[in-house]
Predict the 3D structure of the following.
Amino acid sequence: MERPTSRREFLLAAGGAAAGMGLVSIIAVEPARATPATMQEAIRKTVGSARVDAGRVKLELPPLSENGNAVPLTVSVESPMSEADHVKAIHLFTEKNPQPEVVTFRLGPRAGRARVATRIRLADTQTVVAICELSDGSFWSDRADVVVTLAACIEEV
Amino acid sequence: MVANALVNVPAQARPGEIIEIKTLISHAMETGYRRTQLGALIPRDIVRQFVCAYNGTEVFRAELHPAIAANPFIAFSTIATESGTLTFHWTGDNGFSVTESAAIVVG
């Protein structure tokens, strides 16, 4: 006859099951998505070995977004936009979207003003980074944290 | 499918004036990360590039990735130098290519 399970055995089994479930859930929440590390890698790829300082560029995003499928944003850079001193490019990156790159804008002195607006997708509450490249070869960045209540990219069709 | 492009350019401007241009193109921007209920990955189909030229000279360009929302909206500015035509060209996956133009009178 099978003897009743002792308290010790029960706890061991339960602990094992819980640990197993924990492991499973860790694996389950590991789909294809960028991490802060992959974002850093993508930024490195874009700027090369140059130093990126905070400042000069301003990234404007709503701090709270109800719909991650279309988040309006504006990037502007303090620049005279002259032949000698202008913004060459503005790059946007995200931390937790499936892919860290969002968009690259290329502009020049004929833009007159370094200010661009668009709408992006955000898969999660995360940090968005804007990096601008000036004509003198320097890079400047700004970041904004956004809380997203309805995430993009995850729904089934 | 005929893609709908919408551009907003002022009809008139003074020489040297900075004008704002707003563009919108109808496109689903399928990310390539979504799945059907059966688990099959839906292939990527996005607009990858947008170029604006002022009388044939490129003044603005954007390289898009799947994180740009459906029906990509891009607003930027340029200096009104001379009367002429602004052309807008979107290209993307599966041979997507749309050109739109707008006339501007400067003076």
